[in-house]
């Protein structure tokens, strides 16, 4: 999510303290419900156990989180419920059934990665991410995880800046791959090679593993050949197999975002069934915080409640939904997670 640049930064500096300091009107407060801010009501730590070994990853309906560790910095930057720093929140998401993560990294002193959302440090480093996923997969060996990695810092106003004098982002990534015990145990090796992209795996290939979907550079675009071959065109925003219209300029535009999610969900079901589709249900701006887009505001239905209703409707209302692809959510609710997972019962 890159919201700080939708307005001149000088205006943002003037507006944000005022917005955050004022009490939030009751009509803007979105209550937790089945679709929103109730992640812990879902418990699906072993749901992949029932997925047949020969099933392509492209066929599986997977709940994911956008900005998976964006917990700190206030309403403008928080995208997920806070279940603890140092990647404890990832453990909560994994137990709920989340299996795709969006991890944003800044280069720190000592050739290390720390987790950021824009300029805001998220009280975790990449070792935390790898170690918590490693521990979960050790306890739940039937499961597999998909990860999108992004170099977060653009160096522009409103973003972060990588520490100078360090190795390149991909060189540091390879250091983790080759030296972290957790990474050595868990990366699905074909997906973390600089010079060769991987084909879409089957469930049997990724049990107990982390599949790297893509590494994106600070301005978008795929970095080298890391990840899956089908995501060679994964750029900033929309691209082949990815819907990521992240700029929602105001609460009135949430309806447009809902429609973008719906149209891409329809494409996921009508399009190439051998491909993975990644549908970002998130969006924001200075006038529509992530929580408003997810949960709704000012009488406008949020993406999450809309999605829960849409997925529950039959073919008498709209085209059949037999798979959801990878749904990248902000503040997901437990029933919404369970609903996405229910489409795997047909595998």
From TrEMBL:
NADP in keyword set: no
* Coiled-coil ranges from the UniProt annotation: none
This protein's UniProt keywords:
Signal
Q: InterPro entries per the record?
A: PI-PLC_domain, PLC-like_Pdiesterase_TIM-brl, PLipase_C_PInositol-sp_X_dom
Range of residues in the leader sequence:
1-21
* Entry-linked PANTHER family: PTHR13593, SI:DKEY-266F7.9
- UniProt-recorded name of the protein: 1-phosphatidylinositol phosphodiesterase
What organism does this protein naturally occur in? Mycena venus
């Amino acid at each position: 999510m890159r919201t700080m640049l939708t307005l001149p930064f000088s205006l943002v500096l003037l507006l944000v303290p005022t917005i955050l300091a004022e009490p939030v009107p009751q009509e803007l407060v979105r209550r937790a419900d089945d679709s929103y801010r109730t992640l812990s009501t879902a418990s699906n730590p072993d749901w992949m156990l029932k997925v047949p070994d020969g099933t392509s990853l492209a066929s599986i309906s997977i709940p994911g989180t956008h900005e998976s560790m964006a917990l700190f910095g206030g309403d403008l930057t928080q995208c997920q419920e806070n279940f603890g720093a140092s990647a404890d929140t990832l453990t909560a998401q994994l137990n709920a059934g989340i299996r795709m993560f969006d991890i944003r990294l800044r280069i720190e002193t000592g050739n290390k990665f720390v987790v950021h959302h824009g300029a805001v440090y998220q009280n975790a480093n990449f070792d935390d991410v790898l170690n918590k996923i490693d521990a979960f997969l050790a306890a739940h060996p039937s499961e597999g995880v998909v990860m999108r990695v992004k170099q977060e810092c653009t160096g522009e106003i409103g973003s972060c800046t990588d520490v100078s004098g360090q190795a390149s982002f991909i060189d540091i990534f390879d250091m983790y791959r080759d030296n972290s015990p957790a990474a050595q145990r868990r990366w699905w090796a074909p997906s973390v090679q600089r010079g060769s992209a991987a084909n879409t795996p089957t469930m049997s290939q990724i049990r107990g593993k982390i599949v790297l979907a893509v590494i994106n550079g600070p301005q978008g675009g795929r970095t080298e050949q890391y990840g899956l071959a089908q995501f060679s065109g994964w750029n900033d925003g929309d691209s082949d197999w990815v819907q990521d219209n992240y700029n929602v300029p105001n609460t009135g535009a949430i309806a447009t975002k809902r429609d973008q999610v719906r149209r891409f969900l329809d494409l996921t079901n009508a399009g190439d069934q051998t491909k993975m589709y990644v549908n970002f249900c998130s969006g924001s701006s200075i006038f529509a915080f992530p929580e408003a887009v997810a949960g709704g505001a000012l009488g406008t239905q949020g993406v999450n409640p809309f999605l829960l209703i849409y997925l529950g409707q039959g073919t008498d209302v709209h085209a059949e939904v037999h798979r959801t692809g990878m749904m990248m959510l902000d503040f997901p609710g437990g029933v919404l997670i369970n609903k996405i997972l229910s489409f795997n019962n047909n595998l």
